[in-house]
Write a structure and sequence with these properties.
70% helix; mainly alpha; 355 residues
Length: 355
């Protein structure tokens, strides 16, 4: 389903309001939680969220870079809040889970940037580039420790189940990231090449697991039964896979003003993302995908080869298929109040943001 321009603009406005409302609830608690860290590590953690400059000078972020609709920022806290409300709980019930999941997300970005060698994120230096690799690793570790501590302190009825879901998610995240790193040394073609199925399994751990965790933990802290929390976990996983597929599209064809990274950024790094893997599976010549990072003409040709081989359409259709699965769950989970409609609008936006 494709929205026409007026409807898409209205839908994006509704999603922006949802993200803003949820972020305004979570943001103060998140800031206070990060403030528990010692001065040097705390400053780096604040920098990772975009709240201060590298020297600790506060930035006017109007609530933080996580709260806008560009790129779906604030998605994880919003999922937690909406799922808590959907099972009859309050937004406040979900805040410990929302904060914990957002801290883990920040931890993963800090470490991912080190492993990928990325020097910029959201138009700013990454933590390792600003402070060094060692301090950045410690900052990520501190964020992870804070996340677990935040959730363990919850006194909700199903807090124990939420902690168990959270810890299982951490294991999945590590496995997904490990597979992603291993893909870099695998050949482009032949018996050892990364398959579409392997790529999607990796994305399920690296991206789908955390969104599934946000939704499930929100439902559990909101007092929902285990069966509904499991449905919300599947919902989040589908959205995570759709989100990753769209991110992969943006990583090649995205507007740098939106992504904060150069056009063709994933091609410059030689990453095996979903459009690339799908194009290779359809017989695209890997030699045409090995452009030098500074050869703009060759990068443009590589993007065209991927598109002509069906890589763009495959990733787009994959995202739409996962969205359809998510919409089915939203419609059958028995959520109460306006949460179902807001979850559906948020889900649709995640896919439409690549148009």
């Amino acid at each position: 389903m494709t929205l026409d321009a007026p409807r898409l603009e209205s839908a994006e406005k509704d999603v922006a309001e949802t993200l803003s409302r949820c972020w305004e609830l979570v943001n103060p608690v998140l800031r206070n939680t990060v403030a528990q860290l010692r001065p040097s590590t705390g400053r780096m953690a604040l920098f990772s969220f975009g709240w201060v400059e590298s020297d600790g000078t506060p930035r006017d972020t109007q609530g933080g870079t996580q709260g806008g609709t560009q790129g779906g920022k604030g998605l994880r806290p919003a999922l937690a809040v909406l799922c808590a409300e959907g099972v009859g709980g309050s937004a406040a019930d979900a805040i410990p889970g929302a904060v914990a999941v957002e801290l883990v997300h920040a931890f993963s970005l800090v470490h991912d940037d080190i492993m990928d060698g990325d020097e910029q994120r959201r138009h700013r230096q990454t933590v390792w580039k600003a402070y060094g690799v060692g301090p950045a690793i410690l900052t990520g570790d501190a964020l992870l420790a804070l996340a677990m501590d935040t959730l363990v302190r919850s006194t909700a009825e199903h807090a124990g189940a939420a902690v168990r879901r959270f810890s299982a998610t951490l294991i999945e995240l590590v496995r997904g990231q490990s597979e992603d790193v291993a893909f870099e040394s695998r050949p482009w073609t032949g018996p050892g090449a990364v398959t579409v199925e392997e790529y999607c399994a990796m994305a399920a751990g690296k991206t789908g697991a955390l969104l599934g965790c946000a939704a499930a933990v929100g439902a559990l802290l909101g007092g929902g039964p285990t069966v509904v929390a499991e449905q919300m976990m599947r919902l989040g996983r589908h959205l995570g896979l759709a989100f990753q597929a769209v991110d992969d599209l943006l990583g090649i064809w995205g507007d740098p003003e939106v992504t904060g990274k150069p056009v063709f950024s994933d091609l410059r790094r030689g990453k095996k993302t979903l459009p690339v893997v799908a194009a290779l599976a359809q017989g695209a010549d890997p030699a045409l995908l090995s452009a030098r990072p500074d050869d703009e003409g060759a990068l443009r040709r590589s993007a065209r080869v991927i598109e002509e081989a069906g890589g763009y359409n495959f990733a787009r259709e994959y995202a739409e298929g996962r969205l359809d699965q998510a919409m089915t769950i939203i419609g059958t989970a028995g959520l109460t109040g306006p949460a179902a409609g807001r979850l559906a609008a948020l889900s649709r936006f995640l896919v439409d943001r690549a148009r």
